[in-house]
Amino acid sequence: MRFRHPDGSVVHLSYCTNVHPAETLDGVRAQLRDHCEPVRRRLGRDRLGIGLWLARDAARALTNDPAELRALRAELDSRGLEVVTLNGFPYEGFGADEVKYRVYRPDWTEPDRLAHTTDLARLLAALLPDDVTEGTISTLPLAWRTPYATDPGAPRTARTALTTLAQRLDALAELTGKSIRIGLEPEPGCTVETTADAIAPLTDVGHERIGICVDTCHLATSFEDPGTALDTLTAVGIPVVKSQLSAALHAEHPHLPEVRTALAAFAEPRFLHQTRTRTAAGLRGTDDLDEAIAGRALPDSTPWRAHFHVPLHAPPAPPLTSTLPVLRTALTRLVGGAVPLTRHLEVETYTWQALPAELRPRTRTQLADGIAAELTLARDLLVDLGLKELP
Questions:
Q1: Beta-bridge partners for 285
Q2: How far is the C-alpha of 205 from the C-alpha of 169, rounded, in Å?
Q3: pTM of the entire structure?
Q4: 100 CB-near residues (< 8 Å, 6+ apart)
Q5: b/e map of 296-333 (b: 16 or more CB within 10 Å)?
Q6: Using alpha carbons only, what angle is made at residue 245 by residues 335 and 71, rounded to the nearest 5 degrees?
Q7: Which string of DSSP letters, residue by residue, matches 5-37?
Q8: 200 CB contacts (<8 Å, ≥6 apart)?
Q9: For helices 154-176 and 195-205, what crossing angle results, to 10°?
Q10: Which stretches of 177-254 are DSSP H helices?
Q11: For 204-233, how does the pLDDT look when each residue is reduced to its tens digit (9 = 90+)?
Q12: Distance CA 311, CA 349 (A)
């Protein structure tokens, strides 16, 4: 979905396909047929943007066979789908029964991360619509905090990898005329947990093609103020490459038994749900929601937020809610000003099948309806900010 910003530029809205498990190229094609095109039809659009997730095996198949890449581009066109952004964070196994800490490997100290991201950049340059010259890719925020924090050589290794990537992106732009930018995506528990944590490593790299991806669920989970975070990034010259529109789980009164019971329904074995609370002494947290619920690991006199991407249009029932207000505030700062801070927006609710059983979509139809409802909400927010939806 495309929108005209009041400054005349085009802002792209997509939804991320990591909600549909697929490790192979055949799986990606099935996603387009079974999920993406039905969502487009529900929205009544001739064209729908998707934030494509290409796992390692799918990416390698496309890299190794130019004919397959041309065929994928043709299939996207035939199904009314377009790709301007990729989710390069998960490497493989995102559809496994248990993902948890595995999603952070390989990290930016490992050669496979650089090789995979380079492949993604080359693929995206080929998949971009003919009238689009800029693509974006979100990626791991360097590494999970351990063992990175105990390896004195890790920051230098990661910086070298990102600098090498930037050089490759420059060469790619010169060769293809397509500018691909990469955004580190701050996430609780990682080396770069907050936007503030991103400033030093990105300043060290110091390249316009390497910036930040602002995920509004992660922003909220870490209790960052959107205005302060985005103003600081602007002040130091770090570009917001893209933003993922998502909402975290919020518990206002975690000391109450009924709140703990409600939270327990979201503690599930597949994904990691880092949980945070803000106290007078600073931010406190656990690596997963069940650790917070089980005992006294977190103070419960202040609200808790958990890294659980809840559907934008359907906040959980009381006594829980979502951080949709944080998303609204962030979006206003991102694209509501005289000039947009980013032109790539991506709805990223990958946890539909991790929701409590009574809230999960039971059929493809229900899932498509839910994704379409999320995109409708995002579209309405953009229109309210003065953007005009384009055909």
A1: 276
A2: 13
A3: 0.97
A4: 270, 271, 272, 288
A5: ebbebebbbbbbbbbbbbbbbeebbbbbbebbbbbbbb
A6: 100
A7: -TTS-EEEEEEEGGGS---SHHHHHHHIIIIIH
A8: none
A9: 70
A10: 195-205, 216-221, 226-236
A11: 999 999 999 999 999 999 999 999 999 999
A12: 6
In angstroms, rounded to a whole number, what is the distance separating the alpha carbons of residues 148 and 328?
A: 34
Task: List residues bridging with 12 in a β-sheet.
Answer: 2, 344
Residue 384 pLDDT > 90: yes
Strand partners, 241: none
Confidence of residue 251 (pLDDT cuts 50, 70, 90): very high
| pLDDT tens per residue, range 309-356 | 999 999 999 999 999 999 999 999 999 999 999 999 999 999 999 999
How many Cβ atoms are within 10 Å of 207's Cβ, its own excluded? Answer: 18
Residue ranges of the alpha helices (H) in 79-225?
A: 111-127, 145-148, 154-176, 195-205, 216-221
Length of the chain counted residue by residue: 391
Assigned token pair, 355: 């929701």
Whose CA is closest to 43, among 375, 377, 363?
Answer: 375
Question: How many other CB atoms are found less than 10 A from the CB of residue 362?
Answer: 8
Q: State the pLDDT confidence band at 30, using cuts at 50, 70 and 90.
A: very high
**pLDDT band at residue 295, thresholds of 50, 70 and 90?**
confident
Are the C-beta atoms of 102 and 93 separated by less than 8 Å?
Answer: yes
Q: 260, 285, 261, 283: which is closest to 273 by C-alpha?
A: 285
Strand 240-245 vs strand 344-347: parallel, antiparallel, or unpaired? Answer: parallel
Q: Return d(Cα 151, Cα 28) in angstroms, integer.
A: 37
Pick from 178, 154, 31: nearest CA to 95: 31
Q: What are phi and psi for residue 148, nearest 5 degrees?
A: -50, -45
